[in-house]
């Protein structure tokens, strides 16, 4: 029997040359998206009353309101900042809904739909709610795309490598 002992030099990421760093990043491209990377965005949507059911990173997203569209819009405005696209979408929906109610009011009580106008109001309101759901799902699709792009960026992968103190061979392969 023969025993052979080899010695391997290992380096932390910052000690690698640029070519080896590129190899290390390339070999870890999926490190941040291996498990439920979208969960934070899904949880945020549920927090405002929107259940995301399907998405892909190319801009497609489906979902449904867990309560009323008004609940989701109001909760969005409470939970999200004014500069957030979801906030703007929610604010526009609530403003448009108020205008729709006023349009179908008796002109005196502009916050109540007048008797006899309910059917036409309901049709227009359904269209408005459909457009709100479509818009807010587009906002969440954008969030998911941006999250994916960040998590697969060189910057994010490098942060993960450094945080986990991975070690590499001289050519950038993980030891």
Detail the topology: elements first, then pairings.
Layout: E1 11-12, H1 18-27, H2 39-47, E2 50-56, E3 60-65, H3 69-79, H4 85-103, H5 118-151, H6 154-163, E4 167-168
Antiparallel strand pairs: 1-4, 2-3
Helix pairs in contact: 3-4, 4-5
Walk me through this protein's architecture:
The chain folds into two domains: 1-32 and 153-175, no CATH class; 36-151, no CATH class. The strands form two sheets. It has a two-stranded antiparallel sheet. The protein has a two-stranded antiparallel ribbon with strand order 2-3. It starts with 10 loop residues before the first strand and ends in a 7-residue tail after the last strand. The chain has helices spanning 18-27, 39-47, 69-79, 85-103, 118-151, 154-163; strands at 11-12, 50-56, 60-65, 167-168. It is rod-shaped. Helix 3 (69-79) crosses helix 4 and helix 4 packs antiparallel against helix 5 (118-151). 53% of the residues lie in helices and 10% in strands. It is mainly alpha-helical and 175 residues long. It contains six helices and four strands; from the N terminus they run E-H-H-E-E-H-H-H-H-E. A hairpin with a 3-residue loop joins strand 2 and strand 3.
Explain briefly what this protein structure is.
The protein is mainly alpha-helical and 175 residues long.
